[in-house]
Amino acid sequence: MGENTGDNPNMSILQRIATSDVPLVKEYGLPGIIGAILLAVVIPIMLSSIFNKKGKKRAVQADVGGEAGLAMRNSRFSMLVEVPWEGATTMAALFEMASKKYPRHRCLGTRKLINREFVESPDGRKFEKLHLGEYEWDTYAEAFSRACNFASGLIKLGHQRDSRAAIFADTRTEWIIAAQGCFRQNLTVVTIYASLGEDALVHSLNETQVSTLICDSKQLKKLPAISSKLQSVKHVIYIEDEPVEAEVLNQMKHWTTFSFGEVEELGKTSHTDARLPSSTDTAVIMYTSGSTGLPKVYTHDEPTILLLSLNKSLSDGVMITHGNMVATTAAVMTIIPKLGTGDVYLAYLPLAHVFELAAETVMLASGAAIGYGSALTMTDTSNKIKKGTKGDVSALKPTLMISVPAILDRIRDAVFKKVGEKGGLTKKLFDIAYKRNLGAIEGSWFGSWAPERMIWDNLIFKPIRSMLGGRIRFVLCGGAPLSSDTQRFMNICLGVPVGQGYGLTETCAGAAFSEWDDTSVGRVGPPLPCCYVKLVSWEEGGYKISDSPMPRGEVVVGGYSITKGYFNNEAKTNEVYKVDERGMRWFYTGDIGQFHPDGCLEIIDRKKDIVKLQHGEYVSLGKVESALTTSNYVDSIMVYADPFHNYCVALVVPAHQALEQWAQNSGINYKNFDELCHNDQAIKEVQQSLSKAAKAARLEKFEIPAKIVLLPEPWTPESGLVTAALKLKREQIKTKFKDDLGKLYH
What we know:
Keywords: Membrane, Transmembrane, Transmembrane helix. It contains 24 helices and 30 strands. It has 746 residues and is α/β, with parallel strands linked by helices.
C-alpha cells in the first residue's frame, strides 16, 4: 500500500499512466487526460493548413574542375570547411587546443568494474556477467597529460620515431590516449579490429612494418601463437583491463613488454619533447572492406563489428592524413546543433572503424564527454550485465550516440513485440499515438500541434525513451542503409532526429550527412561542408546526369576529406583517386546516387556488384552467380540482394533440357515450359541444386538465395537483358522483373 510503482518495467502503459509522476496526470487525473487527448485530435484537424512544411535548399550546384558531371556543395557555405578553428590543423593540435579550452570538463569516462562472474546455463555453457559501477572520468586536462606521458614513454622504451604503432584493442579510454600519444610524436597509427583473425592480423602488422603493438589483455593472449610470423614487432604494450598471467608474458620474452600504466609512468618521469605532425602527414592507416578483402559485418546475435572473409586476402590499408581527420571533424561540427560541453556521447562501436574514430574526434573538438561502453553491456538487460546492474545507457544517460541499422532494428522490434504482448487498450493507445505523431512528422493533415505531441510523449513514449537513458537528442546512423520504418520509429518513440551519414574510409567518413531538421527518409543528406559531391554519368549502367526527374550517376567525392590512397598499392590508388586540373583530389566511390531537388543525395545502386545486407554482411553478386552456374539446371541466373533484408534471392532461367528431363523422370505433368517453371516441385528441385552448388563453393549461408523464381524465356542480347558478351544488365533485368523480385521479399 502506498508504494510507488511508477518505475516498474512490468506494468502496463495504462498502469504507468495512473501512477505516473508526470505533472499532467497528477493534476488532472486519467479522465482529464483522456479528454485532453480527444481535444488534441480535433484541433489539429481544424488547423492543419497552418502546419504545412516547406522545403529548403540544402545544397547548390558548384563550379569545380575534374571530369564532367553535376557537382554540389553544402548551401550554407560558399567555401569548403577545412579546420574547426584556426590552428587546429592536425589531430595533435586539435586535442591540445581542446584540452586548453575545456580543461576541467569531463573528457573520457570508463565504468568501474566491481566484479565479474560466470553463470552456467542448463546446457553447460558459461556466460560472463559483469557488475559495473558508475563512470569514472578523466578531465580534458588529465586526458591530455596522459597522452603526453604515453608519447614520451613510447620513445623512452625504444620506439623509433620513423616507425609505426598498431592498436589492437576494443574501444576504450586507453585506445584514444594511445592514439593521441602517437600523434604527438608524429607516429602513424595502424588500426586493427579486435576481432581480426590470425592470418589477417599477421598480414596487416607485417605489411605496415609495425614495431610497437598496443593491445588489451584479451588480444595479448593471441600473440604467442603468431609471434614467429611477426617480422617487425619489437615492443608490446598491454592494457591491464584483466589480470595477465605470467605464463603469457614469459612466452613473449623476445619482445619488450610493458603495461600501459608503466609506459605512462615512464613518460611522466622522463619527458621527451613532442615532434608534432603537419596536416599532410599520415595519421592513420586503416584497413577497409572490399571485394577482395575482409568486410565489416554486424551480426544479428551480437551487434558488434566482426570480420567475414570473402577470400583469403586482406584489402588495402587507407592512408588518412591529419588534414583529412580535422576537415571531417570541422564539417560535422557545423551539422549537429548546439554541440558542446553539455553533451554526453556513448562510445561502443569499434574505434578501428572510421565511423567511430571520426565521431569521437568530433566530440573531443566540441568539449563533449565520451563515456565508453559496449554492445553487450549497453542496456539493463544486455547479455553481459549482471541482474540488478545498470546498463551503460542507464549509468551514462547520453545525449548523443551513433548506431548501425541492426541495433536500431532490434530496439524497434523489441518495443513493438512488447506492445503487442500487452494488447487491449494499451496497444490501441500506442497505435493512435504512433499514427498521430507519424502524421505530424510527415506533414499530413494530422498536423503537428505541440500540446498533443507533449501528451503522447509523456504518457506513451517516455518509458520507451528510458531504454536509452532518456536524454538522447540526436542519433547518427551509418554502416548500412537504414529502413524508413526504423527511422520513423526513432523519430516517434524516442522523439529524436536521426541523421543518416554516407562516407567511406577513403573519404575519412566525410561525404554526405542529413541535417537535424530534415525528416525525410531514404536519403543521406547534402554534401558535408568539407567536400563536394559530384555525379558522373555511367553510360553503361544507364545512369546519366541528364536523367529526369532527378540527375543520376556515379558518386564522386572531392575535397579536404579525401585520403592519400592505399598503402603500398599505387596501381589501385590511381584507379579510383584522381587529381583534377585545379589540384582537387577526387575519389570514385563506385556507388550510384541521385540528387533530389533540394540537393540531398540518395544512394540507389552500386556500380560494382557488391551489396551490403541489412545486418552489414557483404554479398558479391558476381561471385555467388559464378558458383551457382555450376548447377546443371542453370542457363542464366541473377542474384539480387535488397539491403533492407538479411538474405538474397535469385532469378533463374533454367536449362530447358535438364529441367524437362527431371520432370519426365519424376512423373511431373505440364502443358508447356512456362507451366513447369511455376511448378512448386520444379522450383524446389532447382533450389536444392543451387544450395548444393553453393555449399560446394563454400558460400556463406547468407550468400545462398533463400527464394528463387524460374523464368521460362532465355536472356539474349536481343532482349536487352544481357550484353553482346552475355554479361548481365542488372538494371534492365531488375526493371523487367520488378514484380517477381517484390514477391520474393514478401
